Protein backbone atom coordinates (compact mmCIF):
# COMPACT_ATOMS: atom_id res chain seq x y z
CA UNK A 1 0.00 0.00 0.00
CA UNK A 2 1.38 3.39 -0.98
CA UNK A 3 1.82 6.32 1.40
CA UNK A 4 -1.04 8.14 -0.31
CA UNK A 5 -3.34 5.15 0.26
CA UNK A 6 -2.25 4.88 3.89
CA UNK A 7 -2.92 8.60 4.45
CA UNK A 8 -6.28 8.26 2.70
CA UNK A 9 -7.46 5.38 4.90
CA UNK A 10 -6.11 7.04 8.04
CA UNK A 11 -8.08 10.17 7.10
CA UNK A 12 -11.22 8.07 6.59
CA UNK A 13 -10.77 6.36 9.95
CA UNK A 14 -10.14 9.63 11.77
CA UNK A 15 -13.17 11.37 10.27
CA UNK A 16 -15.44 8.35 9.85
CA UNK A 17 -18.38 9.78 11.80
CA UNK A 18 -18.35 13.06 9.89
CA UNK A 19 -17.99 11.32 6.53
CA UNK A 20 -20.86 8.99 7.45
CA UNK A 21 -22.95 11.99 8.44
CA UNK A 22 -22.36 13.60 5.03
CA UNK A 23 -23.14 10.35 3.22
CA UNK A 24 -26.37 9.82 5.19
CA UNK A 25 -27.45 13.41 4.53
CA UNK A 26 -26.84 13.01 0.81
CA UNK A 27 -28.75 9.72 0.79
CA UNK A 28 -31.69 11.36 2.56
CA UNK A 29 -31.67 14.27 0.13
CA UNK A 30 -31.66 11.86 -2.83
CA UNK A 31 -34.73 10.13 -1.38
CA UNK A 32 -36.43 13.51 -1.08
CA UNK A 33 -35.47 14.53 -4.60
CA UNK A 34 -37.88 11.96 -6.03
CA UNK A 35 -40.78 13.64 -4.25
CA UNK A 36 -40.10 17.29 -5.06
CA UNK A 37 -42.38 17.29 -8.09
CA UNK A 38 -45.19 15.37 -6.38
CA UNK A 39 -48.42 17.31 -5.78
CA UNK A 40 -50.42 16.11 -2.81
CA UNK A 41 -54.13 16.73 -2.38
CA UNK A 42 -53.40 19.18 0.46
CA UNK A 43 -51.07 21.17 -1.78
CA UNK A 44 -53.50 21.33 -4.69
CA UNK A 45 -56.51 22.28 -2.58
CA UNK A 46 -55.02 24.37 0.22
CA UNK A 47 -51.29 25.11 0.30
CA UNK A 48 -50.93 26.38 -3.25
CA UNK A 49 -53.92 28.71 -2.84
CA UNK A 50 -52.55 30.11 0.42
CA UNK A 51 -49.16 30.74 -1.18
CA UNK A 52 -50.78 32.59 -4.09
CA UNK A 53 -52.82 34.82 -1.78
CA UNK A 54 -49.76 35.72 0.29
CA UNK A 55 -47.54 36.20 -2.77
CA UNK A 56 -49.90 38.72 -4.37
CA UNK A 57 -50.06 40.88 -1.24
CA UNK A 58 -47.69 43.14 0.64
CA UNK A 59 -46.92 43.27 4.34
CA UNK A 60 -50.56 44.08 5.01
CA UNK A 61 -51.35 40.39 4.39
CA UNK A 62 -49.87 39.62 7.80
CA UNK A 63 -52.84 41.44 9.34
CA UNK A 64 -55.26 38.72 8.25
CA UNK A 65 -55.46 34.96 8.48
CA UNK A 66 -54.52 33.03 5.35
CA UNK A 67 -55.15 29.30 5.65
CA UNK A 68 -55.38 27.48 8.95
CA UNK A 69 -51.75 27.46 10.08
CA UNK A 70 -50.64 29.65 12.95
CA UNK A 71 -49.14 33.10 12.46
CA UNK A 72 -45.38 32.24 12.65
CA UNK A 73 -45.72 29.73 9.81
CA UNK A 74 -47.60 32.31 7.75
CA UNK A 75 -44.78 34.81 8.39
CA UNK A 76 -42.20 32.30 7.15
CA UNK A 77 -44.27 31.58 4.04
CA UNK A 78 -44.55 35.34 3.42
CA UNK A 79 -40.73 35.54 3.43
CA UNK A 80 -40.43 32.52 1.12
CA UNK A 81 -42.85 34.05 -1.40
CA UNK A 82 -40.34 36.86 -1.86
CA UNK A 83 -37.70 34.39 -3.04
CA UNK A 84 -37.40 33.23 -6.68
CA UNK A 85 -38.98 29.83 -5.98
CA UNK A 86 -42.39 28.36 -6.66
CA UNK A 87 -44.88 27.31 -4.01
CA UNK A 88 -44.23 23.59 -4.17
CA UNK A 89 -40.48 23.95 -3.73
CA UNK A 90 -40.90 26.64 -1.07
CA UNK A 91 -43.05 24.52 1.22
CA UNK A 92 -40.92 21.44 0.74
CA UNK A 93 -37.59 23.24 1.14
CA UNK A 94 -38.72 24.61 4.51
CA UNK A 95 -39.87 21.20 5.74
CA UNK A 96 -36.73 19.41 4.50
CA UNK A 97 -34.57 21.90 6.39
CA UNK A 98 -36.42 20.99 9.56
CA UNK A 99 -36.05 17.29 8.73
CA UNK A 100 -32.35 17.92 9.27
CA UNK A 101 -33.06 19.80 12.52
CA UNK A 102 -35.31 16.98 13.72
CA UNK A 103 -32.73 14.31 12.93
CA UNK A 104 -29.95 16.27 14.64
CA UNK A 105 -32.17 16.93 17.66
CA UNK A 106 -33.02 13.23 17.95
CA UNK A 107 -29.33 12.33 17.67
CA UNK A 108 -28.49 14.91 20.34
CA UNK A 109 -31.13 13.45 22.67
CA UNK A 110 -29.79 9.93 22.16
CA UNK A 111 -26.24 11.17 22.79
CA UNK A 112 -27.40 12.66 26.09
CA UNK A 113 -29.41 9.57 27.09
CA UNK A 114 -26.39 7.33 26.54
CA UNK A 115 -24.21 9.45 28.80
CA UNK A 116 -22.49 11.28 25.95
CA UNK A 117 -20.39 8.18 25.31
CA UNK A 118 -21.91 6.58 22.21
CA UNK A 119 -21.52 8.86 19.22
CA UNK A 120 -22.18 5.92 16.91
CA UNK A 121 -25.70 5.45 18.33
CA UNK A 122 -26.34 9.16 17.81
CA UNK A 123 -25.26 8.75 14.18
CA UNK A 124 -27.57 5.73 13.78
CA UNK A 125 -30.40 7.84 15.19
CA UNK A 126 -29.70 10.59 12.68
CA UNK A 127 -29.66 8.06 9.85
CA UNK A 128 -32.88 6.28 10.81
CA UNK A 129 -34.74 9.54 11.45
CA UNK A 130 -33.55 11.41 8.36
CA UNK A 131 -34.09 8.43 6.06
CA UNK A 132 -37.37 7.31 7.65
CA UNK A 133 -39.95 6.87 4.91
CA UNK A 134 -42.67 8.70 6.86
CA UNK A 135 -40.34 11.65 7.52
CA UNK A 136 -39.38 11.72 3.83
CA UNK A 137 -42.98 11.41 2.65
CA UNK A 138 -44.21 14.06 5.09
CA UNK A 139 -41.90 16.79 3.81
CA UNK A 140 -40.81 15.95 0.26
CA UNK A 141 -44.06 14.41 -0.99
CA UNK A 142 -46.87 15.78 1.19
CA UNK A 143 -45.32 19.25 1.72
CA UNK A 144 -46.36 19.08 5.36
CA UNK A 145 -44.40 20.61 8.21
CA UNK A 146 -44.66 18.17 11.12
CA UNK A 147 -40.89 18.04 11.44
CA UNK A 148 -40.96 21.66 12.68
CA UNK A 149 -42.99 21.23 15.85
CA UNK A 150 -41.58 17.76 16.60
CA UNK A 151 -38.02 19.13 16.35
CA UNK A 152 -38.75 21.59 19.13
CA UNK A 153 -40.51 18.98 21.27
CA UNK A 154 -37.46 16.71 21.06
CA UNK A 155 -35.27 19.67 22.04
CA UNK A 156 -37.65 20.40 24.93
CA UNK A 157 -37.15 16.86 26.26
CA UNK A 158 -33.39 17.21 25.76
CA UNK A 159 -33.24 20.40 27.83
CA UNK A 160 -35.53 18.88 30.47
CA UNK A 161 -33.10 15.99 30.93
CA UNK A 162 -30.26 18.49 31.31
CA UNK A 163 -32.27 20.33 34.02
CA UNK A 164 -32.53 23.43 31.84
CA UNK A 165 -36.17 24.09 32.59
CA UNK A 166 -36.66 27.50 31.01
CA UNK A 167 -35.08 26.54 27.64
CA UNK A 168 -37.20 23.38 27.71
CA UNK A 169 -40.45 25.28 28.07
CA UNK A 170 -39.34 27.86 25.52
CA UNK A 171 -38.95 25.01 23.03
CA UNK A 172 -42.49 23.88 23.86
CA UNK A 173 -43.70 27.42 23.24
CA UNK A 174 -42.01 27.48 19.84
CA UNK A 175 -43.59 24.11 19.04
CA UNK A 176 -47.03 25.45 20.01
CA UNK A 177 -46.49 28.46 17.75
CA UNK A 178 -46.42 26.07 14.79
CA UNK A 179 -48.80 23.25 15.71
CA UNK A 180 -51.51 22.58 18.26
CA UNK A 181 -50.31 18.95 18.34
CA UNK A 182 -47.90 20.00 21.09
CA UNK A 183 -50.78 18.99 23.39
CA UNK A 184 -49.73 15.36 22.85
CA UNK A 185 -46.59 15.90 24.95
CA UNK A 186 -48.07 18.24 27.60
CA UNK A 187 -49.32 15.37 29.83
CA UNK A 188 -45.75 14.10 30.01
CA UNK A 189 -44.48 17.48 31.17
CA UNK A 190 -47.27 17.61 33.77
CA UNK A 191 -46.27 14.15 34.98
CA UNK A 192 -42.69 15.39 35.27
CA UNK A 193 -43.83 18.46 37.22
CA UNK A 194 -45.84 16.41 39.72
CA UNK A 195 -43.42 13.52 40.18
CA UNK A 196 -40.05 15.30 40.29
CA UNK A 197 -41.02 18.68 41.76
CA UNK A 198 -38.09 20.13 39.84
CA UNK A 199 -40.28 22.55 37.89
CA UNK A 200 -43.02 25.02 38.74
CA UNK A 201 -46.56 25.29 37.43
CA UNK A 202 -45.54 28.83 36.44
CA UNK A 203 -43.17 27.37 33.84
CA UNK A 204 -46.20 26.30 31.84
CA UNK A 205 -47.00 30.00 31.33
CA UNK A 206 -43.83 30.26 29.26
CA UNK A 207 -45.48 28.16 26.54
CA UNK A 208 -48.27 30.59 25.53
CA UNK A 209 -45.96 33.55 26.23
CA UNK A 210 -43.47 32.33 23.63
CA UNK A 211 -46.32 31.71 21.19
CA UNK A 212 -47.48 35.32 21.62
CA UNK A 213 -43.95 36.70 21.23
CA UNK A 214 -43.47 34.78 17.97
CA UNK A 215 -46.70 36.29 16.66
CA UNK A 216 -45.72 39.90 17.48
CA UNK A 217 -44.52 40.80 13.94
CA UNK A 218 -48.04 40.19 12.63
CA UNK A 219 -49.63 42.04 15.55
CA UNK A 220 -47.53 45.09 14.67
CA UNK A 221 -49.23 45.12 11.26
CA UNK A 222 -52.69 45.14 12.80
CA UNK A 223 -53.47 41.47 13.35
CA UNK A 224 -56.12 40.86 16.01
CA UNK A 225 -54.32 39.41 19.08
CA UNK A 226 -57.13 36.89 19.51
CA UNK A 227 -56.13 35.34 16.17
CA UNK A 228 -53.23 33.71 18.01
CA UNK A 229 -55.73 31.48 19.78
CA UNK A 230 -58.64 31.55 17.34
CA UNK A 231 -56.66 29.73 14.65
CA UNK A 232 -56.41 26.63 16.85
CA UNK A 233 -59.97 27.00 18.06
CA UNK A 234 -61.14 27.03 14.45
CA UNK A 235 -59.00 24.00 13.60
CA UNK A 236 -60.64 21.90 16.30
CA UNK A 237 -64.15 23.01 15.28
CA UNK A 238 -63.71 22.36 11.57
CA UNK A 239 -63.54 18.58 12.04
CA UNK A 240 -66.63 16.51 12.76
CA UNK A 241 -65.20 12.99 12.46
CA UNK A 242 -64.11 10.78 15.33
CA UNK A 243 -61.06 9.65 13.38
CA UNK A 244 -59.37 10.61 10.12
CA UNK A 245 -57.49 7.65 8.67
CA UNK A 246 -55.74 6.84 11.94
CA UNK A 247 -56.19 3.27 13.23
CA UNK A 248 -57.00 4.03 16.86
CA UNK A 249 -59.84 2.72 19.05
CA UNK A 250 -62.54 4.68 17.26
CA UNK A 251 -61.57 3.36 13.83
CA UNK A 252 -61.80 -0.22 15.06
CA UNK A 253 -64.92 0.08 17.17
CA UNK A 254 -67.18 1.96 14.78
CA UNK A 255 -67.60 3.82 11.52
CA UNK A 256 -69.45 6.55 13.35
CA UNK A 257 -68.95 10.00 11.79
CA UNK A 258 -72.31 11.63 12.52
CA UNK A 259 -71.76 15.39 12.91
CA UNK A 260 -74.86 15.75 15.10
CA UNK A 261 -73.38 13.58 17.84
CA UNK A 262 -69.76 14.57 17.35
CA UNK A 263 -69.71 17.26 20.07
CA UNK A 264 -70.90 14.80 22.69
CA UNK A 265 -68.45 12.13 21.56
CA UNK A 266 -65.63 14.66 21.50
CA UNK A 267 -66.30 15.56 25.14
CA UNK A 268 -66.41 11.86 25.97
CA UNK A 269 -63.02 11.28 24.29
CA UNK A 270 -61.44 14.14 26.26
CA UNK A 271 -62.93 12.84 29.51
CA UNK A 272 -61.74 9.31 28.75
CA UNK A 273 -58.22 10.50 27.95
CA UNK A 274 -57.96 12.60 31.10
CA UNK A 275 -59.33 9.74 33.19
CA UNK A 276 -56.77 7.21 31.91
CA UNK A 277 -53.92 9.70 32.30
CA UNK A 278 -55.06 10.58 35.82
CA UNK A 279 -55.33 6.96 36.95
CA UNK A 280 -51.79 6.21 35.81
CA UNK A 281 -50.46 9.44 37.33
CA UNK A 282 -52.05 8.52 40.67
CA UNK A 283 -50.44 5.09 40.44
CA UNK A 284 -47.06 6.66 39.73
CA UNK A 285 -47.44 9.05 42.69
CA UNK A 286 -48.45 6.15 44.95
CA UNK A 287 -45.46 4.06 43.85
CA UNK A 288 -43.07 6.99 43.97
CA UNK A 289 -41.98 6.66 40.36
CA UNK A 290 -38.65 8.36 39.69
CA UNK A 291 -38.85 10.38 36.48
CA UNK A 292 -35.26 11.48 36.90
CA UNK A 293 -34.56 7.93 35.74
CA UNK A 294 -33.99 8.54 32.06
CA UNK A 295 -35.40 5.26 30.80
CA UNK A 296 -38.60 5.77 32.79
CA UNK A 297 -38.75 9.36 31.58
CA UNK A 298 -38.64 8.40 27.89
CA UNK A 299 -41.04 5.52 28.48
CA UNK A 300 -43.47 7.95 30.12
CA UNK A 301 -43.20 10.28 27.15
CA UNK A 302 -43.92 7.39 24.77
CA UNK A 303 -46.92 6.16 26.76
CA UNK A 304 -48.56 9.58 27.28
CA UNK A 305 -48.25 10.48 23.58
CA UNK A 306 -49.54 7.05 22.56
CA UNK A 307 -52.50 7.41 24.93
CA UNK A 308 -53.57 10.78 23.53
CA UNK A 309 -53.39 9.37 19.99
CA UNK A 310 -55.48 6.36 20.87
CA UNK A 311 -58.17 8.07 22.96
CA UNK A 312 -58.65 11.61 21.64
CA UNK A 313 -61.06 12.23 18.78
CA UNK A 314 -60.32 13.63 15.30
CA UNK A 315 -56.80 12.27 15.07
CA UNK A 316 -55.17 12.31 11.61
CA UNK A 317 -52.74 9.73 10.26
CA UNK A 318 -49.94 12.31 10.48
CA UNK A 319 -50.46 12.83 14.20
CA UNK A 320 -48.42 9.70 14.93
CA UNK A 321 -45.30 11.56 13.78
CA UNK A 322 -44.08 12.44 17.29
CA UNK A 323 -44.74 8.92 18.59
CA UNK A 324 -42.81 7.40 15.69
CA UNK A 325 -39.74 9.47 16.56
CA UNK A 326 -39.96 8.76 20.30
CA UNK A 327 -40.21 4.97 19.89
CA UNK A 328 -37.21 5.06 17.52
CA UNK A 329 -35.20 6.91 20.15
CA UNK A 330 -36.28 4.50 22.89
CA UNK A 331 -35.45 1.43 20.80
CA UNK A 332 -32.00 2.73 19.85
CA UNK A 333 -30.98 3.79 23.35
CA UNK A 334 -32.34 0.87 25.36
CA UNK A 335 -32.39 -1.84 22.66
CA UNK A 336 -35.79 -2.98 23.91
CA UNK A 337 -39.12 -3.43 22.15
CA UNK A 338 -37.62 -2.65 18.75
CA UNK A 339 -40.70 -4.25 17.20
CA UNK A 340 -42.84 -1.49 18.76
CA UNK A 341 -40.89 1.13 16.80
CA UNK A 342 -41.24 -0.98 13.65
CA UNK A 343 -45.01 -1.46 14.04
CA UNK A 344 -45.74 2.19 14.88
CA UNK A 345 -43.76 3.44 11.90
CA UNK A 346 -45.28 0.88 9.53
CA UNK A 347 -48.78 1.80 10.67
CA UNK A 348 -48.01 5.45 9.99
CA UNK A 349 -46.54 4.51 6.61
CA UNK A 350 -49.79 2.74 5.77
CA UNK A 351 -51.68 5.99 6.35
CA UNK A 352 -49.28 7.94 4.14
CA UNK A 353 -49.58 5.40 1.32
CA UNK A 354 -53.37 5.51 1.64
CA UNK A 355 -53.57 9.29 1.37
CA UNK A 356 -50.73 10.13 -1.01
CA UNK A 357 -50.88 7.26 -3.47
CA UNK A 358 -54.44 5.94 -3.07
CA UNK A 359 -53.08 2.53 -2.05
CA UNK A 360 -56.27 1.38 -0.38
CA UNK A 361 -55.29 -2.28 -0.34
CA UNK A 362 -51.97 -1.94 1.51
CA UNK A 363 -53.70 -2.84 4.77
CA UNK A 364 -57.34 -2.41 5.73
CA UNK A 365 -57.90 0.23 8.41
CA UNK A 366 -59.54 -2.29 10.75
CA UNK A 367 -56.56 -4.64 10.52
CA UNK A 368 -54.19 -1.74 11.06
CA UNK A 369 -56.28 -0.82 14.12
CA UNK A 370 -55.83 -4.31 15.52
CA UNK A 371 -52.05 -4.04 15.24
CA UNK A 372 -52.00 -0.50 16.63
CA UNK A 373 -54.31 -1.26 19.54
CA UNK A 374 -52.41 -4.45 20.39
CA UNK A 375 -49.16 -2.45 20.39
CA UNK A 376 -50.69 0.21 22.63
CA UNK A 377 -51.98 -2.44 25.06
CA UNK A 378 -48.51 -4.00 25.19
CA UNK A 379 -46.82 -0.62 25.75
CA UNK A 380 -49.33 0.16 28.52
CA UNK A 381 -48.81 -3.24 30.16
CA UNK A 382 -45.02 -2.84 29.98
CA UNK A 383 -45.23 0.71 31.29
CA UNK A 384 -47.39 -0.26 34.29
CA UNK A 385 -45.11 -3.23 34.95
CA UNK A 386 -42.09 -0.92 34.92
CA UNK A 387 -43.80 1.43 37.37
CA UNK A 388 -44.41 -1.44 39.79
CA UNK A 389 -41.01 -3.08 39.34
CA UNK A 390 -39.21 0.25 39.73
CA UNK A 391 -41.02 0.79 43.00
CA UNK A 392 -39.99 -2.68 44.22
CA UNK A 393 -36.38 -2.19 43.19
CA UNK A 394 -36.27 1.13 45.07
CA UNK A 395 -37.55 -0.60 48.21
CA UNK A 396 -34.93 -3.35 47.83
CA UNK A 397 -32.18 -0.78 47.40
CA UNK A 398 -33.31 1.07 50.52
CA UNK A 399 -33.36 -2.20 52.49
CA UNK A 400 -29.87 -3.09 51.29
CA UNK A 401 -28.56 0.33 52.33
CA UNK A 402 -30.08 -0.08 55.82
CA UNK A 403 -28.49 -3.51 56.19
CA UNK A 404 -25.10 -2.15 55.13
CA UNK A 405 -25.46 0.70 57.63
What does this structure look like?
Helices cover 73% and strands 1% of the residues. It has 405 residues and is mostly helical. Strands 1-2 form a two-stranded parallel ribbon. The longest helix has 40 residues. It is globular and about 75 Å long.
Secondary structure layout plus pairing:
Elements: H1 3-14, H2 16-33, H3 41-55, H4 71-81, H5 87-113, H6 119-130, H7 133-141, H8 146-161, H9 165-178, H10 186-196, H11 206-219, H12 227-237, E1 243-244, H13 249-253, H14 259-287, H15 294-311, E2 315-316, H16 321-334, H17 338-357, H18 365-404
Parallel strand pairs: 1-2
Helix pairs in contact: 2-6, 2-7, 3-4, 5-6, 5-7, 5-8, 5-16, 6-16, 7-17, 8-9, 8-16, 9-11, 10-14, 10-15, 14-15, 14-18, 15-16, 15-18, 16-17, 17-18
Structural class: mainly alpha
Q: How many strand units?
A: 2
Radius of gyration: 22 Å
Question: How widely separated are the two ends?
Answer: 63 Å
Strand order of the largest sheet: 1-2
| Unreliable runs | 395-405
Give the rounded overall mean pLDDT.
90
| Percent of sequence in beta strands | under 5%
Taken in chain order, the helices and strands follow as HHHHHHHHHHHHEHHHEHHH
Percentage of residues assigned to helices: over 70%
Q: Give the CA-based shape.
A: globular
Count of helix runs: 18
Q: How many strands, which pairing sense, and closed or not: the largest β-sheet?
A: 2 strands, parallel
Amino acid sequence: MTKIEIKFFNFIKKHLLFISFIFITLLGLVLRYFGLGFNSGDFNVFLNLWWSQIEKSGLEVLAKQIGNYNIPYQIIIFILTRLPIDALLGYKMLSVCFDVVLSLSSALLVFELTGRKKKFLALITYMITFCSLTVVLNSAFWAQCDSIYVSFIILAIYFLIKDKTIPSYIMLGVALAFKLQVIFILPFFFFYYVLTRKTSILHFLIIPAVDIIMCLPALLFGRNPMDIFNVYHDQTNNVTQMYLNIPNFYAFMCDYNDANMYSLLKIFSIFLTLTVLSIVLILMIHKGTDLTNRRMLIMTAVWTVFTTLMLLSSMHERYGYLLDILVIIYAIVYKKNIWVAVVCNLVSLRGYCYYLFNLYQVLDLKWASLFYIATYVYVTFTFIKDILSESNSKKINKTEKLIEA
